[in-house]
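Quick one: structure tokens for this chain, please?
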Amino acid sequence: MPPLPPAPPPGPAEPARAVAAGLLNLSGLGLGYVFLRRWFLAALCVAATVALVVVALPADPDGVPGWAVLGYLALLLLAALDGARRGLRAPSTAVRAKPVVAVVAALVLLVVPVGGAVAYDRLRDDAVEEMLLDRLAATDALVKKAADQDFAQARPTYRKALSRYRALTEDHPDSKAAHRVHGSLDAYYKAVAAPYRADDHCAAVAPLEYLRDVPRTIDRDVLGTLRTWPDKPLAESLLACGTGKLGTAAGDGDGGELGQLLRTFPKSAQAAEVEPAVRAAVDDRSADLKGAEPCRATEELRTIGDTAKELPDPAPGHLRDDVAGAVENGAYACGMDQFGDKKFAAARKTLADFADTYKSDKRRARAEQVAIAAEIAEQRPSAGAHLPPAKSPGGSRMQLVISNDGPGPVEVLYTGPVTGRITIGGCASCKTYASEAAGRSKACRASGKSYPKKTLRLPAGTYHFLHKPGGSSATARSRAAGGSIQPGYTYTQCSYVVIGGYGTDL
């Protein structure tokens, strides 16, 4: 076999050629190896560049993986160094261009990797913008879905959406998505405030309060006019909700929505409407006192009064006084209505409370009269057939002497042409009778015995009496009875105690 021809001898060292080969390899296309006629090595460089393009495209918001970038840069550097090494003393037969021309071409061709990097950055920016716009659209969809839910249920979703909007504006302030956040927030506010737009003012209070706090968590410049938008709707909702609740719900110690309105927006037009609204509610219930349900109107007036007491300034003190006056009228009207409806126990309590509470009221005496009749009617319904006369009749009066043959004091209530009550002291030497029959035959008849007694002077007519224990420790039950007072007679009545109750002898 003939020997292989000897390799061409290396040419003289040419630094310019080495620089040209190295720079040409920095293009990523292996042109330095092409310049040196190293075709296999040139192909490897092209393959590495193609592989990088495959990994990099399509552009991803996160960019090319770091390992790929570092590996490729290392390859370029090695190719440049190897090209420079090989070009320094390359065989003369391998050189087909002047080294100076190659250097200039290499510098020009550096535009390729630099331009590629710039172009990729633009593609990556577009990918980032698309990702951010998709993120914005997903957040908008989240808000739209939450709008169909109750606010309490949707509140966590709203908070999540708000944090995403904030992240877009803070982390990517120059992005297209960030510039569109204000429009998304406008839709966000409308979604949260949906109950207000539906005129459900009580349900709107909590969402609008939430919206007032949004400027604490996102840039005010991003919000623009949305910063203060919730103020007026919240004031309107507090007024509408608070006035709607007047008479049905108290303020839980703070005046409810009306108190919140006066504290939060004291100088607003809505705050100025609080007093007229309360006054109108009082006037409406006061008119109802003459209707079929004065007790219901009275309870509503009391509730309005409780709310009025809790209202801060500028609610005037005389407003509270007006409500208190209406409640006073209502208490009297309620008790009288209960008596007319034969609800004697309720009427007694209502009118007795009225007399105890409003001691300077001119109707106090009348309330006490009807309360006495109601108490008697609890055990003797005929005593409540009609209201007791407000004024005593004229004419002669007959004497009724009531004696007490019981060991404890006795209170005697009576109603008829006149109504009243007396208390007779106990008889220390008297005892309880075994039966009512024994009482009727023996009570108040012991010779030489002095019984405590009181005398009433009564107009003629039919009367109803109630005898009940007069001492706090008495255990006898009350006893009701009736009788007539005729002109020209003197009457006596004996009260005695039998086992288990009172007896009377009229």
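The first strand starts at residue 397 and ends at 404.
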